[in-house]
Specification:
The complex is a heterodimer. Chain A is an all-beta fold. Chain A contains no helices and eleven strands. In chain A, the strands form two sheets. In chain A, strands 2, 4, 5, 6, 9, 10 and 11 form a seven-stranded mixed β-sheet that branches. In chain A, strands 1-3-8-7 form a four-stranded antiparallel β-sheet, with no helix packed on it. The radius of gyration of chain A is 13 Å and the shape is globular. By secondary structure, chain B is mainly β. In chain B, strands 2, 4, 5, 6, 9, 10 and 11 form a seven-stranded mixed β-sheet that branches. In chain B, strands 1-3-8-7 form a four-stranded antiparallel β-sheet, with no helix packed on it. Classes of the chains: A mainly beta, B mainly beta. At the A-B interface, strand 5 and strand 10 of A face strand 4, strand 9 and strand 10 of B.
Amino acid sequence: DVQMVESGGGLVQPGGSLRLSCVGSEFSFSSHNMHWVRQAPGEGLVWLSRIAGNGYDTKYADSVKGRFTISRDDARNTLSLQMNSLRVEDTAVYYCAGESGGNFHWGQGTLVTVSS
Amino acid sequence: QAVVTQEPSLTVSPGGTVTLTCGSSTGAVTSGHYPFWFQLKPGQAPKTLIYDTFNKHSWTPARFSGSLLGGKAALTLSGAQPEDEADYYCLLFYRDTRVFGGGTKVTVL
């Protein structure tokens, strides 16, 4: 079965940085679009970023453009999200998801809390 | 960036039918937005129900169907079951970005 496991969440102060990782098994990152999505407490899903199967083409939601950077290490089948200049409103559970064959394979998420 | 709108909440009787819609601030939703529908239950990862407007996966119950309706994407639940009580999100493709709707909380009561 496909598995995605996120890590790297935690408590960080406003203005700080955090790097999230997502490791996949039974799913080749290099062949598929990979996404980061978040869900703030009591709120809905929000798409944040996508890296294409080629590993070079990246897109971002306006809310994180210029602050977050998505990247991928195909050798380790790992997806990353570098988050800088974090704000209180970035507090959320962050999910990675691999897109394949009309399906999104999701991890269980990692919680990021931005608070002083 | 586009805004995708869904009904905040809907209630359906057991065995009844309910239609959720997904609209776009940029105009009519078309097949070119490749609408996806996800079901989200507490403590679980989202589950893909519908992709590319109306396509189902092997795990999608037959009572769920996707379509385009009145310029919006639509998810119809026919014959609602108690286990269908959940949050439902649509996802639209805009060129190379994606935008989720705000989600619809479906209550089976």
